[in-house]
Amino acid sequence: MIHSVDTIMSLVLLSVLLSYGYSRLPRLIIVVGFQGIVVSMVPFFIGHEMTAGGIVFTIATLLIRGIIIPMSIYIAIKKKAIQRKVAPIVGYQASILFGLGLIVAATYISRQLNIPSISDYTLLFPTAIALLVTGMFLLMTRRNAIAMVLGYIIMENGIYLVGTTFSIRARHIVEFGILLDVLAGVMIMTIILQNIKRTFDDVDTAHLRTLKE
């Protein structure tokens, strides 16, 4: 039997592959927003008891992860006239191949772990692993600072999915803590990006090599 969770997780895995292959920031922002919306909706599908407060918090999380943060980043690159093409350290084709291998490996690892609490959802834990590793991959292999911020958000989406999956009683505490981390991280990175843009008139992190003490 195919659960609705596995259906939406398959869409997230598809978006993971797209994030490896996109060379333009607006498309990558759309992918990150989509992932934020879907990941935030997971509690509605995995059988958690949803109180009125829990529903409100989940919707607020969806709005912040899926709309507010991506829109803020898009407005920032439009306002600052930041170059929208991502300069990769690892090529896009090689990145996509890595993403395919990652999904296969994550599925295999999930089956080997055989976690009882999520045994009914085949793709839930592999998707969490894929998001975590994809975020770290983008952080390490993209020279554009905005793309690195988006990689950080993707990684946090994976952490959020893991926390939502395994923490039932204290789920909202975990979610709130992760959400605060995301907001704090995005604000700090925005300040750093503004300084990089002001200094080098670009957000290519390769320019940072020219800095001297």
In short:
With 213 residues, the protein is mainly alpha-helical.
Helices and strands in order:
Blueprint: H1 4-21, H2 25-41, H3 52-79, H4 92-113, H5 124-141, H6 145-166, H7 171-200
Helix pairs in contact: 1-2, 1-4, 1-5, 2-3, 2-6, 3-7, 4-5, 5-6, 6-7
Report what the structure shows:
The chain is 73% helix and 0% strand. The mean pLDDT is 76. α1 (4-21) runs parallel beside α5 (124-141), α3 packs parallel to α7 and α6 (145-166) packs antiparallel against α7. It has one domain (4-210). The protein is mainly alpha-helical and 213 residues long. The protein is globular, with a radius of gyration of 18 Å. The longest helix has 30 residues, at 171-200.
Distance between the termini: 61 Å
Unreliable stretches covering 5 or more consecutive residues = none
Find the count of extended strands (DSSP E, 2+ residues).
Answer: 0
Q: Estimate the mean pLDDT confidence.
A: 76
Question: Can you summarize the main beta sheet?
Answer: none
Radius of gyration: 18 Å
How would you describe this structure in keywords?
single chain; 213 residues; mainly alpha
